Amino acid sequence: MRRRWVIIALAVLAVVVGITSNLADARLLPYGPVAATGAMGEDVSAFPYTVHVNHAQAAASIVEAGRFEPPPPTTTDGVWVVVNLSYATEDEVRIPGSSALVLRAEDGRQFPVSNRSPARPWLAGADIWVRGDLAFEVAPDTLDGLMLVFDPELKIYGPMPMQYAQIPLDLDPDDVVEVLDLTETETLPVGKR
Amino acid sequence: MEAGAITARTVVTVLLATWPRRLLLGGLLLIPVIVGALGGFGSTEPRSFEASAGEDIDLGPLTMRPLAFFVSDETRRSGLDYVDGAQAWLGIVVEVENTTESPISLTFAGPASDAIEPQLPQGVLLSTLSVAAEAVRVADGTSGTAALPGVRTQVALLWPVSDAAAVPEVLDAVMTESLWMFGPMSNEERWMSLGDTWHVALPRTELPATMFEPEDDL
Amino acid sequence: MTEPAARDPRPEAEIATPPRGVRAPEPPAQVWGSQPRPDQPRRTVLPLARVLWAVALVIGLLGTAWISTDYFRTYWLQSQPREPAAVDANGAATLAGITISLVEARDLGDSPSLGGSEWRPPAGFHAWRVVLRTESTNDDVSACEVALVDDRGREFLANHFVESFADGYEWSYTCRRLSPEDDIGPEQALLVLVPADAEPRSVRITEATLDPGYIELEIG
Predict the structure, then answer these.
(1) Residue C36 pLDDT greater than 60, yes or no
(2) Taking CB atoms and an 8 Å cutoff, what residues of chain A touch B146?
(3) How far from C72 is each of B149, C66, C68, C78, C114, CA to CA, in Å?
(4) Which of A137, A158, B137, C22 has its CA 20 to 30 A from that of C9?
């Protein structure tokens, strides 16, 4: 009789241990990326990058940079958000992937760098900061609480948690300019962002 | 072996010790067989509806409002040259809104794969996938391939066709709802166009002026 | 809740302990309530069931180890630093038919006088001039990447963030076999942007298809 109870107790224990370890696995262990929340005007680490958002502005239309004859403004069915930012790496020349930089709304909606603007993420070097504009199209009701998320999505150290940066943009939903000119990318002097 | 140790044999012995236990275990093993014999865990049959042009249709990840269609070779000329045997674009003008949290491509397989499919005689449609080959924003003729969350846009979805004359005056199109389901092949949950379908008859229209591309003078 | 089969689920206990070194015989599997046969003859050979258990255990452990080290085997090992190609007495190293030696690696300072260009490095940066002598019999590659590596392990890639059209400098480092039509001499000069506080120690030459091999030349 006693032996049977031991067996039952062990079976129950096995199930409880399994459920507990699954719960810890899913809820507690940071297998996924780990957020580093920063602010505009601060260096925020998203290893191997460090990113710095200078300013962000909402606009109804944007004008492409660096053309001899400026093209007509590009409009949108949402709102343009142009983020002026710079970043550098800690080790070597790298370029963020196309999905590394997104704007995330408070309700979780995500907006990638718009493919209707020619601005794309650019190359940066080890402690060589390069600044430029990225244009995003977002739904108008998301301007309040919009956040830039920079996730390099690199698995440098294997399946380990890697840091990503998230930076609230502090946009004023009522401040939407009519036309915004994009600036060209620029390699910055030491100390400049 | 030490007395009182639990071995696989003792566990099997306990589980199979009495007839009620044996019947219960046997019954558990038979459940998949019984369910399989009764037709398996099938989902309910997708329903089919008639819809009219200009009606908002909820396709799951997208809300789409089909408006009209056109046939033209005066837009996206270089893209048309790229397709072997293509004579013209078949364009379906729709209003589309992404109701998910992530962007959806209107020209890649995925949530929009079977959002709207023109019904044409065999061989007229020249794309292997049901999804459109190009998507152009009607307002200004720029790229409209990305449907962004909560941003309603009017786009022309373009498919290359081999014979412009083979497209009827009223075009039938089928729109298929996508369901968020577990895909055994991909081993993950994703949108699959297995839901209800809507049949819609689209009136013919002209190529939107914003999309007109003059011929290169060479 | 009493049933005859559960009365003694461990028939081994009834068998006298065998002498040391002699395996106890494996009793027959007891299923569907059948009674054990205590009069089974003893055997001194290793019972087949034990062997199968051991084999299954080893296979299971090996399989688990193989699956759980997948990332380690496929990515991590390959991402580890490799040994560069050997450098001979003349300071030249050869990799896949490409022989490279370092002619010059010199700090041009913050205001280099470049022919045909007014370009200046951004404040806080220096331009470096790297000259490589190349002899190549390799037709599969076209350009190689050249980087200055500093004492902190930072890599500064040549031809990025610098003027592309300075007289006497190449905008890309050609490491394939040169043909008579090529307007490139045996020595190629490259520009590198380096922070003023960096102390470059070596020149590293890589090419994606030659991974994991690479060439590293110390700055004298």
Answers:
(1) no
(2) 112, 114-115
(3) 38, 10, 8, 9, 47
(4) C22
Question: Chain C partners of A126 at a C-beta cutoff of 8 Å?
Answer: 154-156
All chains having 3 or more CB pairs closer than 8 angstroms to chain B? A, C
Same domain, B58 and B91: yes
Q: How many CB atoms lie within 10 A of CB A115?
A: 16
Question: In degrees, to the nearest 5, what angle opens at C-alpha A136 toward C-alphas A133 and A138?
Answer: 150
Domain ranges (residues) in chain A: 1-30, 33-187
What is the total count of domains within chain C?
2
- A33-187 CATH fold: Immunoglobulin-like (2.60.40)
The pLDDT tens digits for C155-176 are 999 999 998 888 889 999 999 9
Please give the residue range of the domain that contains residue B27. Answer: 8-37
**Is 0.85 exceeded by the ipTM?**
no
Contact present, C110 and C126 (Cβ < 8 Å): yes
Out of A92, A158, A190, name the one closest to residue C124 (CB): A190
Give all strands of the β-sheet with B134-137 in edge-to-edge order: B57-58, B62-72, B88-98, B153-161, B134-137
Give the integer Cα–Cα distance in Å for B196 and C1: 54
Q: How confident is the model at residue C82 (pLDDT cuts 50, 70, 90)?
A: confident
Q: Is C85 within a domain?
A: no
Domain boundary among C51, C79, C107: C79
User: Could you give the residue ranges of the DSSP H alpha helices within chain C?
Assistant: 4-7, 48-68, 70-71, 77-79
- Note the pLDDT tens digit of each residue in C54-69: 999 999 999 988 888 8
| B14 interface with C at CB cutoff 8 Å | yes
A125 to A161, B218, C197: CA distances (angstroms): 23, 43, 15
Using an 8 Å Cβ cutoff, are B180 and B190 in contact? Answer: yes
| Subunits adjacent to chain A (3 or more Cβ pairs under 8 Å) | B, C
Q: How many other C-beta atoms are found inside a 10 Å radius of the C-beta of residue A75?
A: 17
pTM: 0.76
| Residue B132 located in a structural domain | yes
Two structure tokens written together for A180: 């915004």
Q: Per the structure block, which two tokens stand in for B54?
A: 């200009």
> Closest chain C residue to A92 measured between Cα atoms?
C155
C61 and C167 inside one domain: no
Are residues C124 and A159, on separate chains, in Cβ contact within 8 Å? no
Tokens standing for C58? 């080893």
Based on the domain organization, do B80 and B131 belong to the same domain? yes
Instruction: Identify whether residues B16 and B124 lie together within a single domain.
Output: no
Residue B2 lies in a domain: no
The enclosing domain of B151 has a CATH number of: 2.60.40
Taking each helix axis from N to C end, the angle separating B8-15 and A2-23, rounded to the nearest 10 degrees, works out to 100
**Measured between alpha carbons, how far is B154 from B149 in angstroms, rounded to an integer?**
14
Q: Give helix then strand counts, H and E, for chain B.
A: 3, 13
Q: pLDDT at residue B162 above 90?
A: yes
